[in-house]
Amino acid sequence: MRGGGARYNITVKFRDIGVIFLGLAMTILLIANWLIVRGMLPFTEADAQTLVSGAFDYEVLYTGSGFVPDYLSVPIGSRVAFRNAATSTPLWVASDPYPGRTDYPALDAQQDYGPGATYIFTFDQSGTFGYHNQEVPIDDATISVVDPNNPVPDISKTQERQQAVRDKLVAMLVPGDPNSIFTVIDAIDADTVLSLDCHDIAHDLGHRAYELYGFSGAMTYSNPERVNHTSVMDVCAGGYVHGILEEASLHDHNFGDNPGALCENVPSSNKAGCYHGVGHALMFFNNRDIQASLDGCRKLDNVNDASRCFEGVWMETFWGNTEHSGPGTLGWDLDKPLDPCIQTQPDAKPACFIYASFGYLRTHVRDYAGAVRLCTQSELDGSDTSYCLKGVGITMVTHFKATHLEQSEALVAGLTVDQKHGFYEGVIGYARLSGVSETELVRTCAAMQTDASICAAALEDSK
Question: What is the pTM of this model?
Answer without folding.
Answer: 0.76
